Amino acid sequence: MTDVISQSLAAIASGSLVGFTLGLIGGGGSILATPLLLYVVGVSQPHVAIGTGALAVSINAYANLIGHARKGHVWWRCATVFATTGTIGALAGSSLGKAFDGRGLLFLFGLLMLIVAALMLRPRATVASDIVKTDRMTCWKTAAVALGAGAASGFFGIGGGFLIVPGLMLSTSMPMISAVGSSLLAVGTFGLATALNYAVSGLVDWTVAAQFISGGVIGGLGGMLLATRLATKRNLLNRIFAVLIIVVAFYVLYKNSIAASPL
Predict the structure, then answer these.
(1) Whole-prediction pTM
(2) Where, per UniProt, does this protein localize (predicted)?
């Protein structure tokens, strides 16, 4: 009984941290979800952690989307194109990911995080206006980037916010806070597509997912409030985002290198 209670509390606390990062930066939730489920909550199988984390992150992303939408942070046209197009890639990527060794997926995931963090830390030209042109060409660019982000999201079993936020900024030149808010629609949709794909194979722990989600809703409120306060500091969210990715990337690489090395 004590072990069950401890695991439940760990799942709720971990979910709160994931929800906070989703509300703050629109991504990073799923980056944290799988390591937390494996190393803190105690889920034994990497693929079950991936499927369970994808479901929890999906629901929390949708919950946080409501708050950002009320504050006008969501560019619905680009967000919808990104989410619907990227879901095709997410379904294909998640089918491929289930065929890979879970430990190998986590190691590759850590390497990908370092690459993305390096790109996020590169100097970025200042956007002269907060008004983003959402014409047909912009939507085509958004769709092209979405396919790639969705495929990577599904393959690694993540919501993909850490790919979606820079993807939206690259394809539309929207400000960071708008990319954060808009990304949550895609994070939720990609995560849901991946979770359903994993659930078909029995790779979702529904009890842990429910506990994770309950904690995430609370944490998401705090993250969203902080994100709104930091919206005027254009580079700060970028740096927080990149540092978070780097820290978790090294931890994931370390844990899986130790596990893969001979005694």
Answers:
(1) 0.78
(2) Cell membrane; Membrane
